[in-house]
C-alpha cells in the first residue's frame, strides 16, 4: 500500500516563492501566479493566507536589492576616499615643493636687494666725490 502525498496549492506557492527568491526573479502575486500557471484571482480567492507570504518575500527581495546597492555605493565611496587621500598627499608634497621654491626665491630676492643697496651706496659715493670735485 503506497501513501500518496498531496501537494496543496499553498505548498506550490511556497515552493515557487523559494525558487523565485533563489533565482532572483521578480516576486509579486502576478509573477507567482504566472509561474504556477494560474490566475492572480485564484491566489486571492483560494489562498488568501499566502498573500502576506508573497508580500513578505517581495519586501525581502527589495531589501536585499537595496542592501546590495548600498554596499556597492559604500565600496565606490571607499575607493573615492582612498583616491582623495592619495591626491591630498600629492598636493601636500607639491605644496612643500612650492614652499621650498618660494624660500629659495626669497633668498635670491634678498641677495638682489643687497646688491642693489651696494650699487646704490657706490653710486651715492661717486655722486658725492663728483660734487666735491674729488
Automatic annotation (TrEMBL):
Matches recorded under InterPro entries: TnpC-like
Keywords attached to this entry: Coiled coil
UniProt keyword Coiled coil, yes or no: yes
Domain of life the protein comes from: Bacteria
Coiled coil residues, start to end: 74-104
UniProt-recorded name of the protein: Putative transcriptional regulator
Organism name: Thalassotalea piscium
